[in-house]
Amino acid sequence: MPKFFIPQIYDNCAEITGADARHIGLSLRMRVGEQLTVSAGGNDYRCEITAITPDRVVLNVLAKLEDTAEPSVSLTLYQAVPKSDKLEQIVQKSVELGASRIVPVLTSRCVSRPKPADFVKKQARLKKIAESAAKQSGRSVIPEVASLYSFAQMCEELSQSVCALLFYEGGGKRLSELALQDAAEIAVVIGSEGGFSADEAAQIESAGAVPVWLGKRILRCETAPLAAISILMYLTGNL
């Protein structure tokens, strides 16, 4: 059943406008009486189309659906900015795997060094990718793609985290050694192609992050976050 995100439900009625409305009418060729799913405020609803125009679809809410796609753990990925379009792939797959928030971070070894102002356009595309991935994977919320963070901003947030993990080629604990079964929030830190400098790793640890490793093989920066999120979702009972 097609799924769309809307801001709010009003008295068992809902509306879809703009590009999504055009997609429903022109691409999917849906008609009055057919059903689709909408997500609003973190909840899913089964709806029936009661009116449709090229720019507006009116819906009657039939039932609130049980949420089965959102993980029990809120996972934030702090990803050092990689080269090329790798960040797009990371956002897409992280959303599919269950990440709640993706934060791009500029570190000393990032080859790609966009200015914050230039990153705004990139961020808009990344948000669209996150929305598309959320629809495809049946999520009930669209994970946040944050603006470009400095290294200091990341460390400040990590110092407030209940559970922060630094995935570092320099070694650390195995994930199986950590008690994560009941974790409600996890912050994950992944480097770019060049990883983190020793000084950066030390600062991240000082902010409260626990160094962990993913084995003896060195993973690419676009592979490491997907492996980490997959394992964490398994350990927290979400896979």
Sequence-ordered SSE layout with sheet pairings:
Layout: E1 3-5, E2 13-17, H1 18-27, E3 35-40, E4 43-53, E5 56-65, E6 74-80, H2 86-97, E7 101-106, H3 116-136, E8 144-145, E9 149-150, H4 151-158, E10 164-167, E11 185-190, H5 198-206, E12 210-212, H6 224-235
Parallel strand pairs: 1-3, 6-7, 6-11, 7-8, 7-9, 10-11, 10-12
Antiparallel strand pairs: 2-5, 3-4, 4-5
Helix pairs in contact: 2-3, 2-6
Q: Can you offer a commentary on this structure?
A:
The chain is an alpha/beta fold. The protein is 30% helix and 27% strand. It is built from six helices and twelve strands. It has helices at 18-27, 86-97, 116-136, 151-158, 198-206, 224-235, and strands at 3-5, 13-17, 35-40, 43-53, 56-65, 74-80, 101-106, 144-145, 149-150, 164-167, 185-190, 210-212. The strands form two sheets. Strands 6, 7, 8, 9, 10, 11 and 12 form a seven-stranded parallel beta sheet that branches. Strands 1-3-4-5-2 form a five-stranded mixed beta sheet. Helix 2 links the parallel strand 6 (74-80) and strand 7 (101-106). Helix 2 runs parallel beside helix 3 (116-136) and helix 2 runs parallel beside helix 6 (224-235). The model has no long low-confidence stretch (mean pLDDT 92).
